[in-house]
Amino acid sequence: MEIVYYPDPALRRRADAVALPREGLAELAQAMLLAMKEAEGVGLAAPQVAEGLRLFVASGTGEIEHALVCVNPVVQPFGPVVEFEEGCLSLPGVRAVITRPEGVRMSWEDLSGARHEGEFHALMARILQHEYDHLEGVLFFDRMTPADRLRVRPDLDAFEAQYRPR
Ligand code: ZN
Q1: Separation in Å, CA 112 to CA 22, 26, 121, 161
Q2: Whether the model pTM is above 0.85
Q3: Per-residue pLDDT tens over the stretch 103-144
């Protein structure tokens, strides 16, 4: 399974809701977990593997056994906004401090279609907001300060120059 890089158009499409159970979804989630682990990431959303589905995996430790597999998530950020440095597996090497609310309430479905709810803080809340953005076609540089956007512009230009349509 290959992770797609900016500016692949798959990253800019709003992902579709998933009707559960869905054939092949468990295999897709498993492949995404392995791709996340191999890339040493802490989260991966289906649009990042060119699947336009509302599905992401997230693991605060990067370990598969600690990962949440979230289908059709609904996130409600809350609390004071805090600064935290983010990266993205679709923009390897680019990092910037992004400001987001500290906490998240989330409901989601598991692969069987059972709905869950939880409250998350700190790193996990940050990962969930970043991955949820991918389902909306939002990339983390959209949320950078103007100064950081200028700073990473050469990196984005390099990704654009290397891009080859699939
Ligand atoms: Zn990302």
Answers
A1: 8, 9, 26, 41
A2: yes
A3: 999 999 999 999 999 999 999 999 999 999 999 999 999 999
Report residues near ion ligand 1: CB below 5 Å: 88
Ligand 1 centre distance from Cα of residue 112 (Å): 25
Strands (DSSP E) along the chain, which ranges? 43-45, 55-58, 68-86, 96-109, 115-120
Q: How far apart are CA 95 and CA 141, in angstroms?
A: 9
The burial class, CB within 10 Å (0-12 / 13-18 / 19+), for 39 is middle
Measured in angstroms, how far is the CA atom of residue 130 from the centroid of ligand 1?
Answer: 6
Secondary structure letter of residue 91 according to DSSP: S
Sheet holding 43-45, edge to edge: 43-45, 55-58, 68-86, 96-109, 115-120
Task: Summarize the confidence of residues 24-43 as an average pLDDT.
Answer: 98
Domains annotated on the chain, with CATH:
9-162 (3.90.45.10)
Name residues whose C-beta falls within 8 Å of residue 90's C-beta, 6 or more positions apart in sequence: 3, 4, 5, 6, 8, 11, 48, 139
Strand-pairing partners, residue 96, are 86
